[in-house]
Structures
1.
Amino acid sequence: MDSVALLIVFNHVETPVMSHSNLLNSLELSELPLLNSLSRELLNEVVTKVKVHTFPKNTFIFKPGEKNNEICLLLEGVIKNGIILPDGKELIQHIFKPLDFFGFGSLTGKSVRVHYAKSLSPFCTILTIPCEMVTQLMHQSEQFSKGVIETIAKALYRSEKRLEVLLTADVRTRITFFLEENITSNNAPIPIETLLHEGLTQQDIATMIGATRQTVAMVLNEMRKDDKIDFNRKKIVIKSNQPLRQE
């Protein structure tokens, strides 16, 4: 069970990273987070600067050491974000889902990326915005500026909460926190919700929550026996009529 994947595997053909500037004509920027606060005039400026890219599975969106000159908005798919250890292994720190912003490092003074971002889904579609454009918009629109600050503050809060759980909670609570934080599909008929992450293994979960793979496997099996979840080699299903947290 050491390679149990947590998202349905789709058959697909690996293709190079592609830019889709032609999609910008039909892309409703005004409906996207942060951008929905901009005037039509500013949106017309933005549409000339943003780009849309498609990445196949297991493709780096960016790597440590690359220039930190774009902010990314995930439109479709799932992305993992973390650091690359000296031995070449990847340490996953965050999982990004559709409509999540990431790559804000340049706004905090980092000109070079220290993290990596890599696609987990068969295909990921990402909107990139030049950092200088974001800075310009923050000066031009108070509402946009507040939105950027709130987005960064929420990301910091999630990181602090995750660190608090890692330092103070037992393994079951840490796994529960991970599952609740990473539910990506809420469309299944009641009473279930499905956690979908392709390519994410029990070992990845163990690394993220500071436990061993064997312990993660044991706790997941206990939760299944308690009728909190169900899982197989492709997905984990959370039974929403059964609270994950123990009383």
2.
Amino acid sequence: MKEKIYTIPVNEAFDAGGECPFCTMREKIENDAINYVLGPSYMEEDIRAETDEKGFCKRHIRNMYERQNSLGIALMLSTHFEKICGELREKLKEAPVSGKKSLFSRPKEGERSASSEFIHQTADSCYVCERIEENMARYIDTFFYLWKTEPEFKEKVLSGNGFCIEHFAMLLDEGQKRISDKEYSEFYNSLSKLELENLERVRGDLLWFIDKFDYRFHDEPWKNSKDALPRSIKKLMGENVEEEK
């Protein structure tokens, strides 16, 4: 299989052998994006303009805080604060959407004041999330390109560990848009078989992990179950909860 620059991250994720290659890709994008904004880039005007505009969600501001670059975060938040305060001050001058309501009346769907709408948009905006979504969209495109054009890649996928539930559903949905009806039937059946086999594999490891707490199995080997709990969480929820070693 001939590698191209844009196919390398996808192939590397499938070669890594984790419980979900798309989670592996997402985690790398997320870490790279956080390291990028906390590196020298936060002093660049164009990057600061973007982070001022988009801000960060709760998850990613917490991730950034844990990296212990206090000065970098403080500088970004200070100018983001300035932008929010200035825009909110102007929004709050505008009249509310409606006046007094009766005790039993309910606001119409989408009925918000300008200030409330601005706050909701700000809370939902995140520079890191946006970078993740943009890159993941490209990786999904690459996955289907490789699936349709590279038999070796298809073989690699089908000999792998399947996907987390969320990304398995995503592939079934995206496949309907990107693959012909005739080819989709084979795609659907192949991925479904792969996913069910691997869910049973992880479930079996989890059951043996539980059995190992029974004194009767104390001297039995762990087999593949020592990390069954974090792998089960990854499979079902897509979350990486493995402890640092």
3.
Amino acid sequence: MSSIPDSALFDRAVGAFYGLALGDALGMPTQVMSRADVVRVYGALQGFEPARPDNPVSAGMPAGSVTDDTDQAVIVARLIVEGGGHVDPLRFAGELLSWEREMKAKGSFDLLGPSTKAALDAVAQGTDPKEAGKYGTTNGAAMRVTPVGIAFSCAADMESFLDRVVESCQVTHDTTVGIAGAAAVAAAVSTGVAGGSLDDAFDAAITASAAGARRGHWIAGASISARIGWARELVAGLDEAAALDRIDALIGTSVASQESVPAAFAVLALTEGDPWRAALLAANLGGDSDTIGAIAGAIAGSVRGLGALPADAVRTLRRVNQLELEPLTAQLLTHR
């Protein structure tokens, strides 16, 4: 297989990766804020903002900074490349623990999420990495799964595709809910990269999420597949402010996969898949806004391509975070 991807495929793939970073960075200052507080403080967020000093997670981060969503996606991408298309769970656990040590050394409050932290603590105490993720239900797997969608096609063999998704989930989120959320995002990105429309990405997400919910350890929870379809209907015909209030009230914006993943798809439906608007509206939700934005931005970027992202915003992401995602994206595409 050629190591040089065709230009359209590459544009959509790198659009997905930078779209993830875009949504992450726009949502960084509003994460863990309520929707009401976002409106009170910002009115409507219009672009990159630094974190306020009273934000308990992102205080001190300058405008345009990415968070753990982008950092962990880069780790997944690198492990796929280095593992010949596979993510080794023990290696992944080690990489995540190393990342958190680096964050702590920098004095950062942007650390591992609750499911990931609990699983890695278990690994550190001797639990088999293949067993550590059996209680992980939050959105950590969904936020970092975009490289799986870039590297592999879900169209030909969904079960084989889900095997790759599960590899990226297993050590921290090996549950029906965790895998269902990650499968939805990965399949939507994979479909966009392949040239699919936003409607195609929605259909793939709904199908993959339902199939993903049959993997992993069973956890009680609403169907993410069903909630993605419902989320699209929920915002139909509403103006943006009313739709954001409805997403906040009825879908929810917490770290729970059943809330944040459908919320991202609601934002995509509301903006018809425009990457900048989708990422910006996610930032205005508050809650786990950086992850909702990262998911929405990745999917929108995969459908529209890098050219649909504002060039000045991409330059900011590269400069502030020393991001250079093109080489890694090209390497991921060699597996496709």
